[in-house]
Amino acid sequence: MKQHVLFVDDDPSFLEGLRRMLHNHRGRWDMTFVTTVDEAVECVDSRTVDTIVSDVMLPGRNGFDLLRAVMASSASNHVPVIMMTGADQRDLKRRALDEGATDLLSKPIDPNDLTARIRSALRLKTYQDEIRTQNETLERKVRARTQALNASWLDLIWQLGRVAEFRDEQTGNHVVRFDNFTC
């Protein structure tokens, strides 16, 4: 299955340039291009997105608003976000990384840098998905084994009660009463 990359920028001509720049990767990636944060959030909510590449400066809600929306959702908080900016603010990269972005690229975008960063983000997402799947498998196994252990424990209590009944009826009844008390 192809991985899905979402691109967000308010400049349709810039998005068209990205589309042409990444034309050779269409066989490996599904790509969606949107111009607003609201469209991006709708896309993330309606389908699986593996990486987001977003401009920081967008009209209305900006790239940081998108980043916060993605990080706030349990369905998408594991999606890597690469931020882009044409602004020359020294603390912008630190802020983007502090707020949860995977990386920040400066415009104009070098095609090789963009491709390398997207590949890296997609690898990161793949590894995170594999870890999440392994954790879910382990949690199911732990639950199943815990249930089996509890059933064995209960059976052991009943067996001990029966053994004790053969020796002393009062002790056997005590074991059974104790078992009913703990369950």
Number of helices: 6
Mean pLDDT: 87
Q: For the terminal residues, how far apart are their CA atoms? A: 48 Å
Spatial strand order of the main sheet: 2-1-3-4-5
Please trace the helix and strand order, writing H or E for each element: EHEHEHEHEHH
| Relative helix content | 55-70%
Largest sheet: 5 strands, parallel
Extract low-pLDDT stretches. Answer: none
Shape by Cα distribution:
elongated
Account of the protein in words:
There is one protein chain. Helices cover 59% and strands 14% of the residues. It starts with a strand and ends with a helix. It has helices spanning 12-21, 37-46, 63-72, 92-98, 111-167, 169-182, and strands at 3-8, 29-34, 51-55, 81-85, 103-106. Strand 1, helix 1 (12-21) and strand 2 (29-34) form a beta-alpha-beta unit. 20% of the residues are buried. The protein is elongated and about 90 Å long.
List the SSEs and their pairings.
Blueprint: E1 3-8, H1 12-21, E2 29-34, H2 37-46, E3 51-55, H3 63-72, E4 81-85, H4 92-98, E5 103-106, H5 111-167, H6 169-182
Helix pairs in contact: 2-3, 5-6
In short:
Helices cover 59% and strands 14% of the residues.
